[in-house]
């Protein structure tokens, strides 16, 4: 399909929220109860979008824990989604968006069929266009840290209208640079915890989240 008409209203609404929120908190390797506590702490800091990566044990339980704990205005999604079956499992756990490190048309198609927002990963202009034509709502530019914000600036020349989310080693400074270069959103992991995610207190996480949003120029809620 080209510039897919299969993007549902529900998926479009979630994608619009990701762009509006600008920062998507990434939870990787956290047990469900830690996902819940960190999610509540970051929600207090102002974040509204949360991703639990599926390449860790109990990831689906982590999605459920977040969805049950957070207010309805929060968007909860699945990351590192590599198969169509994982899309369906994530949706059943409560996810409303799917993020992948690659462009896999069956994954995008299943995401659209499930009424979710699709965010496949790409790096080159060719891959970004391929993802968009497959039906992506946003395209994740990954990994961004080795090349920096100039990569976004160069992509924005010919691809001004495709929403881009940067991910991979994003700290507050890089997020701010990427936003200035034309990125619409950023996926962020460890910097939102301030210290080790396993040992940071709820107060530590809330403080780190607030500092990140302020430094990145992405204040929310």
Automatic annotation (TrEMBL):
The keyword Lyase applies. Transmembrane segments: none annotated. Pathway: Carbohydrate acid metabolism. InterPro entries: Aldlse_KDPG_KHG, Aldolase_TIM. One of its GO terms (molecular function) is lyase activity. Coiled coil: none annotated. The keyword Lyase applies. CDD domains: KDPG_aldolase. Pfam families: Aldolase (PF01081). Keywords: Carbohydrate metabolism, Lyase. Belongs to the KHG/KDPG aldolase family. Homotrimer. This is 2-dehydro-3-deoxyphosphogluconate aldolase/(4S)-4-hydroxy-2-oxoglutarate aldolase.
